[in-house]
Design goal:
CATH topology: Jelly Rolls
Radius of gyration: 18 Å
Number of domains: 1
CATH superfamily: Jelly Rolls
Strand content: 35-45%
Number of strands: 11
Distance between the termini: 69 Å
Order of helices and strands: HEEEEEEEEEEE
Helix content: 10-25%
CATH class: Mainly Beta
Structural class: alpha+beta
Shape: globular
Number of helices: 1
Strand order of the largest sheet: 1-2-3-10-5-8
Length: about 150
């Protein structure tokens, strides 16, 4: 009997973090993405602080017909698609004809200082894991929405 209670208690403890994660996902506070991204994207912080040194996780929503021109970051970033499709490429200019596509459950790592771009033809939601502070440097400064 005692062994059975121990197994049940252990199972409950093991399940607890995943239950908390699901609970916190529904409690995310969505708002406009930082001004370094073109207007229209939404973002919610899952953990950490993207403005400070250290690891962080955010979830991002792009509306249909949304694009982030060629840019790079000073640290690696991992994008995991939660829903929808995301087009991306590793080059100095956005070229949809040469894009690769990610769908729900797939991920890609954009290496530090590697030029890349992303776009969504339909709404997409993804999770981004990286080391802060989060910074975006556009290959062509004219593409930087902070300068418009």
């Amino acid at each position: 009997m005692t062994k059975g209670l121990f197994v049940v208690a252990a199972a409950m403890l093991a399940a607890s973090p995943s239950l908390q994660a699901k609970s916190s996902q529904s409690d995310l506070k969505w708002g406009p993405a930082p001004p370094a991204l073109p207007a229209g994207a939404q973002m919610a912080v899952v953990s950490g602080d993207p403005t400070k040194a250290g690891m962080f996780t955010v979830q991002v929503k792009f509306p249909a017909d949304y694009a982030v021109p060629a840019h790079w970051h000073p640290t690696d970033e991992k994008l995991t698609i939660l829903s929808g499709k995301l087009g991306y490429g590793m080059s100095s200019k956005l070229d949809k004809a040469k894009a690769k596509t990610l769908t729900a459950g797939q991920h890609v790592v954009m290496k530090a200082k590697m030029n890349h771009w992303v776009f969504a033809e339909t709404p997409v939601e993804f999770q981004l894991n990286a080391r802060g502070p989060f910074q975006v440097t556009y290959v062509d400064p004219k593409d930087d929405p902070r300068k418009k």
